[in-house]
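Postdoc handover notes: sequence design on the structure in folder B. Input tokens:
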């Protein structure tokens, strides 16, 4: 995490005070459950709650203890005992460090997922608003970066909306999968802790008990979580790449908002660069990079090892903080995106009507020409436009082979751009039916 690419709400989930607060709540809820079962005195459980709940944990003191113990959970428990007093002997009864660490991590990931879902909602709202605004703004569609057939800018944004609606669903599923709790003790057999304690703590913390925890929660859950974040990041990059292309000087159909006082280049005062979407492309690479180590964490030794621990201490904060920043930055880009319909129309018309080539091809086959002959007729006239700048419609009308099948009036009718947009409303109805 670095401040440049962080938002406070997400970074707060991962700070030391928040982590120790979660650790305390896990231990205190477990003590309450044990008190209900008659395992620890109810008075002791009350003292643990009362003194711990009002405490501010001394992060430096815990670090000082850890320098001796070389064990973070023991360091925390020692500091908690300094706060609670003699009743602290009833803390951590039958539990192991992984019970605290894994349950805490999953709480952090579920809270992070909630923020990511909110960021996705903001982006979806921006995409829908701008898509409806430009539902009928005609532009050229491109395949391989080359002019293809007309679409609308609204359809482009509707495509992105549908993609991020899927992202939202995936984030919900990833959250549900990682929202488990383990308080099963050494090697996960519940030998020294009642399973009812785990169920109680899970309920209090909004989690579900892990069916088999083997002392650690299975890391396939976390692998899926981080893989989901990587897919969402890839969707951000796809949209960012689209905007970067559209902002190229030769295209300039849309561009990032350029604020008063903003500078594009230290050397060239005229520059207005797509710095936000370029930044998003880079951030997406970072989030994707965290998916692989999360998958490698799945293969732990026997009932547990801690090869996953150092990985998760890094990728948990970094992946969620980075994606949160990226989602909100992308939402801001879309909210303020400057769109140039006149430039879209000019680019559409640059190739002299070539975007109607398929319609002419199909009309020729409907009129009796073989597909091979029809393709040859259309292509040879298209190449005159492509290579020499001639008017495509005029060349078709002058071609006797074409004229044997289609009249000039037939050809004129095929150069109506509205033809290409007749199902835009259908697309919007599909995409925004539940919006």
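Designed sequence:
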């Amino acid at each position: 995490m670095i401040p440049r690419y962080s938002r406070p709400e997400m970074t707060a989930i991962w700070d030391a005070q928040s982590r120790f607060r979660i650790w305390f709540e896990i231990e205190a809820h477990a003590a309450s459950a044990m008190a209900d079962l008659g395992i620890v005195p109810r008075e002791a459980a009350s003292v643990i709650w009362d003194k711990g709940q009002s405490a501010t944990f001394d992060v430096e003191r815990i670090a000082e203890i850890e320098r001796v113990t070389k064990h973070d959970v023991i360091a925390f428990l020692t500091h908690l005992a300094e706060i609670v007093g003699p009743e602290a002997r009833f803390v951590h009864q039958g539990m192991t460090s992984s019970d605290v660490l894994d349950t805490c991590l999953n709480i952090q990931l579920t809270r992070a997922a909630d923020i990511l879902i909110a960021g996705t909602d903001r982006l979806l709202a921006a995409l829908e608003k701008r898509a409806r605004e430009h539902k009928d703004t005609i532009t050229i569609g491109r395949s391989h970066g080359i002019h293809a057939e007309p679409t609308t800018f609204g359809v482009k944004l509707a495509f992105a909306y549908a993609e991020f609606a899927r992202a939202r669903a995936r984030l919900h599923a990833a959250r549900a999968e990682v929202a488990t709790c383990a308080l099963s003790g050494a090697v996960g057999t519940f030998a020294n802790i009642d399973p009812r304690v785990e169920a109680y703590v899970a309920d209090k913390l909004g989690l579900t008990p892990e069916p088999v925890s083997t002392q650690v929660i299975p890391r396939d859950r976390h692998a899926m979580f981080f893989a989901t974040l990587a897919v969402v990041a890839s969707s951000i990059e796809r949209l960012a790449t689209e905007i970067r292309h559209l902002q190229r000087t030769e295209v300039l159909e849309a561009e990032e908002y350029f604020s008063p006082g903003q500078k594009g280049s230290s050397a060239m005062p005229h520059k207005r660069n797509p710095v936000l979407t370029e930044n998003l492309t880079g951030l997406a690479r970072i989030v994707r990079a965290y998916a692989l180590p999360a998958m490698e964490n799945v293969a732990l030794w026997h009932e547990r090892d801690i090869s996953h621990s150092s990985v998760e201490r890094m990728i948990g904060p970094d992946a969620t903080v980075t994606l949160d920043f990226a989602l909100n930055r992308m939402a801001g880009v879309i909210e303020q995106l400057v769109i140039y319909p006149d430039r879209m129309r000019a680019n559409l018309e640059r190739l002299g009507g070539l975007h109607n080539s398929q319609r002419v091809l199909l009309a020729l086959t409907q009129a009796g020409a073989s597909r091979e002959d029809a393709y040859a007729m259309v292509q040879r006239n298209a190449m005159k436009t492509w290579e020499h700048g001639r008017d495509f419609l005029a060349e078709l009308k002058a071609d006797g082979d074409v004229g044997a099948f289609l009249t000039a009036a037939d050809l004129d009718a095929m150069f109506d751009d509205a033809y290409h947009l007749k199902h835009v409303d259908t697309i919007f109805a599909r995409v925004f039916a539940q919006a």
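Context for whoever picks this up: The radius of gyration is 30 Å. Don't rerun without checking with the PI first.
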